[in-house]
């Protein structure tokens, strides 16, 4: 239809009100009509229910719910769609709220399309947590929501390395694999921490055990890994046993706040601090500082945000990292130093993370049918949207990831740190 009465033609002004700017994609409605910029990425609106969701949640969350439910989809490259939509939605952090006029016009459109009705139930993959925020019980539930979805699912998405954090792409050779990049990331961490045989390493948020296994095998340390995920702990213990490293590596189902057997020579926190929460980040920093011996090092690898904190309903909060927070780099450095640590090195791996995420999305799409069978169609769509949108946000510079290396100085100020960065910032 091209007479202006088709579904797509009516949806364009509605979505422009939701986005707060000109529609950067082309729409195809459930009646086959199309509208929007010629040559722009094509988005399908399969159902009136998608419009009803936007009436109740005219924001990122409403769009995300419709995508997870399969009511919205993309015909073109998902990255291209996200690269066009993200700047419109996030370009102005102080974007105005919908006015009364906006809402009236949206309602008129919904009436014409037969989309008015009660608020649809959110997809089953959406999480609602109860209890005090960042209590140990609630944090355990948040971690379980994200990680206890089946180890086989993560094997398919992450690949053999089973590392769920930014890889370190030390080569541009097209034959260089994700597994090699993750191996080099683990080695980079071990070098920054100055690991040597006989040292004690604590890995906070150890995941499936890849770092503690690498450190024990290649650097001769005794390692403790802690996680709140039962499935991760079970998987990591099995890997430790298969490697014959039970005397060197211990995996605990334990909150980082309950670790009390310091001092450690080194502590790694890789992709875990995003879960900690802004309200208790000082507690996190003091706990890790208290577990280090004088001269001991902390490697804190964490996604950071640039610009002001976003407000309003968030797809990531509802479906991926409930209660998680992205902090500015300056806040992280300040909190670590207030806890008695001295920050000695900061490295941004922003471009490395976008490449890592694209590799994970490629794995997910390659094994799509298996991933759906292991979880659900909605869960697979959550991970696809989350990882692709995160890749775009890294590429646009809206978020970054930093490795912050800190040391706990001796009372006399001695740090035991090498004189130059070259001693620990490269891998062979």
Automatic annotation (TrEMBL):
Q: What is this protein called?
A: Cyclopropane-fatty-acyl-phospholipid synthase
One GO MF term on file is: cyclopropane-fatty-acyl-phospholipid synthase activity
Instruction: Give the family, as the similarity comment puts it.
Output: Belongs to the CFA/CMAS family.
Q: Biological process (GO) annotations?
A: lipid biosynthetic process; methylation
Q: Where is the Polyketide synthase-like methyltransferase domain?
A: 153-409
- What keywords sit in the KW lines? Lipid metabolism, Methyltransferase, S-adenosyl-L-methionine, Transferase
Q: Which InterPro entries does this entry report, sorted A to Z?
A: CFA/CMAS (IPR050723), CMAS (IPR003333), MeTfrase_dom (IPR020803), SAM-dependent_MTases_sf (IPR029063)
Tell me which Pfam families the record gives: CMAS (PF02353)
The taxonomy runs:
Bacteria, Bacillati, Actinomycetota, Actinomycetes, Kitasatosporales
Q: Which SUPFAM superfamilies match?
A: S-adenosyl-L-methionine-dependent methyltransferases (SSF53335)
According to the record, the segments passing through the membrane are: none
Keyword Transferase belongs to the record: yes
Stored Gene3D superfamilies: Vaccinia Virus protein VP39 (3.40.50.150)
EC numbers for this chain: 2.1.1.79
């Amino acid at each position: 239809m091209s007479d202006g009465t088709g579904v797509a033609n009516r949806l364009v002004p509605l979505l422009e009100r939701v986005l707060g700017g000109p529609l950067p994609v082309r729409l195809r409605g459930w009646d086959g009509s199309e509208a929007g910029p010629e040559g722009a990425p094509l988005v399908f609106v399969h159902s009136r229910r998608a419009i009803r969701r936007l009436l109740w949640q005219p924001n990122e969350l409403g769009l995300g719910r419709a995508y997870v439910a399969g009511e919205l989809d993309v015909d073109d490259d998902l990255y291209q769609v996200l690269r066009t939509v993200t700047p419109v939605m996030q370009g102005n952090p102080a974007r105005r709220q919908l006015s009364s006029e906006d809402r009236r016009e949206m309602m008129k459109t919904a009436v014409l399309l037969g989309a008015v009705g009660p608020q649809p139930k959110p997809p089953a993959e959406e999480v609602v947590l109860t209890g005090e925020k960042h209590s140990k019980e609630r944090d355990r539930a948040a971690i379980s929501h994200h990680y206890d979805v089946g180890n086989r699912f993560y094997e398919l998405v992450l690949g053999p390395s089973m590392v769920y954090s930014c890889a370190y792409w030390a080569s541009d050779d097209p034959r260089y694999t994700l597994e090699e990049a993750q191996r080099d990331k683990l080695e980079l961490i071990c070098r920054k921490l100055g690991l040597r045989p006989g040292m004690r390493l604590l890995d906070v948020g150890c995941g499936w055990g890849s770092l503690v296994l690498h450190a024990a095998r290649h650097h001769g340390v005794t390692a403790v890994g802690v996680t709140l995920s039962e499935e991760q702990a079970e998987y990591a213990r099995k890997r430790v046993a298969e490697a014959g490293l039970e005397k060197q590596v211990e995996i605990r189902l334990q909150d980082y706040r309950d670790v009390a057997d310091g001092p450690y020579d080194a502590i790694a926190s890789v992709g875990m601090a995003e879960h900690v929460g802004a309200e208790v980040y000082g507690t996190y920093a003091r706990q890790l500082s208290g577990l280090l011996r004088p001269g001991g090092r902390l490697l804190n690898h964490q996604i950071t945000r640039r610009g002001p904190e976003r407000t309003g309903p968030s797809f990531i909060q509802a479906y991926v990292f409930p209660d998680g927070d992205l902090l500015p780099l300056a806040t992280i450095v300040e909190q670590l130093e207030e806890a008695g640590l001295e920050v000695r090195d900061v490295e941004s791996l922003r471009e490395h993370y976008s490449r890592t995420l694209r590799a994970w999305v490629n794995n997910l799409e390659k094994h799509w049918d298996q991933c759906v069978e292991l979880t659900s169609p909605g869960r697979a769509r959550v991970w696809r949207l989350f990882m692709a949108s995160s890749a775009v946000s890294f590429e646009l510079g809206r978020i970054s990831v930093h490795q912050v290396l800190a040391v706990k100085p001796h009372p006399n100020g001695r740090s035991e740190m090498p004189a130059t960065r070259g001693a620990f910032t490269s891998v062979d």
